[in-house]
Please model this.
Amino acid sequence: MTWRSPAFGYSLVDLLFGVGLAITLSSIAVPQILPEVDDARAAGAARYIAGRLQQARMEAVRRSATVALHFVAAGQGFSYGVYVDGNGNGVRIREIATGVDRRLGSLERLGDQFTGVDFGTLPGLPPVEPGSPPPGNDPVRLGVSNLASFSAVGTATSGSLYIRGRRNAQYVVRLFGDTGKTRILKFDARSRRWQPL
Model:
């Protein structure tokens, strides 16, 4: 009688079963994870914009000059840049165009840093404050010029910046004029209410 070593390894059927099981489990898990990833990106973008606003405020105080973030509709989204007053009369659109008010750094887009996130609003989004008008289709609510300006003493333009993720995550960054401070709120689709972040 001859002795044989036992065969080790997996049969083709075992491999196919394992691959099929892995694919099935991942197809169940991935759709449940994607909304959380989208929400985390949108929340990160809201925090980033709030931070950029506060940086502009500190820059205005440091320079003893008006500093502003200017938001411009660009294709499907918005680009924004930071500008400093060059002649003592505040940051103005025409003076940005002529170079009197110069840009500090490069232009940015939210989608370049937070995939699938941009300034935007969900259809039928209610107002943040009861009794105030809803945002409609305008996610940058800073007046006609779309400038968030900060003075040398830290006061600011009042307004709201609405940030939307790819899968309906909705946030707003509120800017308060008297203090120049920001507040981030998240829209809860179930309760149809804005909640502090």
